[in-house]
Amino acid sequence: MPNLVKRSAECEILVVDDEEVICTLFKSTLGDLYRVFTCGTGKEALALVDEHDFDVVIADLNLPDIEGIDVLRAARKKDDFTELLVITGYASLESAAHAIEIGVSSYLTKPISLTDLKIQVEKSIATRLFHLKSIMLMKNSDFIAPDIKGHLYDITSLFHFSRKLMLSLEIPEVMRVILDEINTRMNTLYSIIAVHCHELNEIHVMPRVGIMRLDQARQSILDNWASFDFFEKESFENGDVALTLYSGRQGEPFPMETVTPVIIQLSVMNKTIGSLLLFGPKDFAPSADEFQFLYVFTSFVSSIIEHSCIDMHAKLQARSDGLTGIANHRSFHESLAREIARADRGGTVFGLILMDIDDFKKINDTHGHLVGDAVIRNLVERVLCMVRRADTFARYGGEEFGLILPDTALEGTQTLASRICKEIAATPYAAPKASIHYSVSIGLSMYNGKQPRPKDALIENADKALYKSKADGKSRISVS
Description:
Elements: E1 12-16, H1 20-30, E2 35-39, H2 42-51, E3 56-60, H3 68-78, E4 83-88, H4 93-102, E5 106-109, H5 114-139, H6 146-166, H7 171-186, E6 190-197, E7 200-207, H8 214-223, H9 233-237, E8 242-245, E9 262-268, E10 271-279, H10 288-319, H11 329-346, E11 349-357, H12 360-367, H13 369-384, E12 392-397, E13 400-405, H14 410-426, E14 429-430, E15 435-436, E16 440-448, H15 455-471, E17 477-479
Parallel strand pairs: 1-2, 1-3, 3-4, 4-5, 7-8, 16-17
Antiparallel strand pairs: 6-7, 6-10, 9-10, 11-13, 11-16, 12-13, 14-15
């Protein structure tokens, strides 16, 4: 058991990173304030975790021998209140989900900012000391009245929950954290959150343990449709309302029972933004105190959900092309950088296609800019019907477009490029006053994670191939 009465200077911090310069930086920056230990491998880190009662553990996600997340998990297993921080050069939803699950409080991204480092560690130390004081108080809880003890437990639970929730504003992760928390706290069979907020129409379902089938989730929603009346039933049945199904914690397979849910509205400033439905066993009946907790809980999470929806909407606007709704130039470069990083890590390949509408100026000059915009939208609609959900289709600029094809070899990239080229040329756009025949020229280039190269070099190669297609007569594909 760690010492429950301690000063900041007595706190011990473990830094795990295989870059010696990072360890040196952390030790020189924090060494005068705390007791700092450093190491470069997961094996060394696990040995140190066994020997010490660390107050804060900071680990890189990518270590040479084991995953950094395993080091953090070991530290949390030893002490539920050890503060955990992640060092990473990238942040994916998947890594964030695993990190939040074990209680990571924040990310430190490379290159490390010394100011951010100090602030994050100071917050972690302060939270650690807060926890230790809480433990000391609970150790003396025999002298506290049961109702006060329960209230202190609720406050502590909400504090822990809020820290997990604040790590990510991504809607799927926010919902996963909320559903997992309420399932665990209320001992439900499963829970559902429906959200209708800022153009977001989604339903999220999670069993407390095990796995729930998609057809079970859909039937449960339809059986309780009165709780989802802010959606059009036809829209849900047609798949226009997104449905996300999460796995629960490890345990026995999910038992499907016909039960009446406990329903709590989600609202912000008297405006309903959704519903939370709790499904328990047949005798499931929250107490008055549990209902009070639920009302406080939903008041808290409603604001977080609305904030996440606003954040998502703003990001979509910032990264979407106003005319077509697909990714814009900025988003294209961000997606390409992520795909290059993923290919480098896994040694995989992907294809990059650049395409340009042939003689687009002539279309504008002959038919006007409104028709020209309509042609661009027509192209986008037709290409979107040919690509996969995992592909990134973006308006690169003007009448030029980019297409990123993850995990696609040269043959697959050429096949898609050829199909786009032929189908666009084969069918004219039916404008109000004329049928407009148009075509696209395409240039493509391949990226191999086993032979890394700069992003700009990849784009330049695809661009050269595109101009070769133009020079060779248009409406064709070239490879560089």
